Amino acid sequence: MHTMIKLCGICLGFSLAGCGGDSNRPAPVIPDVNVVEAGQKTLPVYSEYVGQTYGQSDVEIRPRVSGWLLKINFKEGDQVRAGQLLYVIQDDELQDKVNRDRAGVEEAKVLLTKAKSDLDRVRPLAEMNALSKRDLDAAQASYDAQIQSVVAANASLKTSEIQLSYSKILAPISGVIGVSNALVGDYVERLGAQPPLNTISSVAEMRVRFNITESDYLKFRREMDRRKAGDIAVQLILNDGTLFPETARLDFVNRQVDPATGSLLVQALVANTSRLLKPGQYVRVRFISEEIPNAVIVPQQAINQMQNIYMVYLIGDSNKIVPRPVKTGMRVGSNWVITDGLKPGERVALLGNALIRPNSRINPVLINYSYDSTSAK
What we know:
Blueprint: H1 2-20, E1 32-37, E2 39-61, E3 67-72, E4 79-80, E5 85-89, H2 92-127, H3 133-165, E6 168-170, E7 175-177, E8 187-188, E9 198-213, H4 214-219, H5 221-226, E10 233-237, E11 248-253, E12 263-271, E13 282-299, E14 304-306, E15 309-315, E16 321-332, E17 335-340, E18 347-349, E19 363-366
Parallel strand pairs: 1-19
Antiparallel strand pairs: 1-18, 2-9, 2-13, 3-5, 3-8, 4-7, 5-6, 7-9, 9-12, 10-11, 10-13, 11-12, 13-17, 14-15, 15-16, 16-17
């Protein structure tokens, strides 16, 4: 019995000690929270697409006569100039035909001379009635026919000489030549399913082609009407994420929408003084398609998303956190455009992952946040 009384006294002592300790608890800690003011500025809206590069001129080199390839007079990947000899095709048969046609021209000229002599002899005799008018008409017809024979022989010779010239393939333009699809000793055909011998690309200026959707075209058509297409600056972003140093310009929009894809082909032109761009590269094409005037923006860290509800946390009276639902627009780099629910200059908390309850008191730390580099896309 004495032992039980003693234990009860100990328990009561602990209980009293616990009750009396509430007055000794430390005051709640008020956390420091970074705060920014909602910004306002006119934002350019960027549209971005995937494009592919083409040379200013991409000319396929194809044989115009058939034969065995005898020579290749260039180094693959080098710069070639217009008129430079590239390929030589065996020309024995072509040369023989030229020689035959030259002989045909000479023969036709001899026969023309004979026909002229016959006509000159018959004409005075016919005038003296020593020969009939029929004889004169026959001599005149023979002479006229022989004139046309000379014309035909010369035409045939010219065609043969042109065919012979095709055995030497010259560069049609200046540019960079690619890998040859035929080697010395290969038989190349004028007509057939063979690929082109090569391709020359003029790369001093490049074409960049990309497709836009019909809805995008309609969306920024007004901007194109307001500014000439050639005045719209186009940025090219390379595969490694770097910005190509030269600014491109819009060149043309195709005349029709592709009914199979619902897209529209657009072309931009860009100077390639650095020769960094090569035909066939894929680049990201970026240009201003519209502007948002007086847009209200906040850092993305100031937005708390719960399913389809977006919230910001304002700094209210007594530095208490006040949640407010807002409507968001497009993302702007590391920021959000707020279309409704927030005014410029209102202070919002950058809570991030911090778990701070609404109406909690904080110690706001106003930071100087810059919105200068923002642009929408």
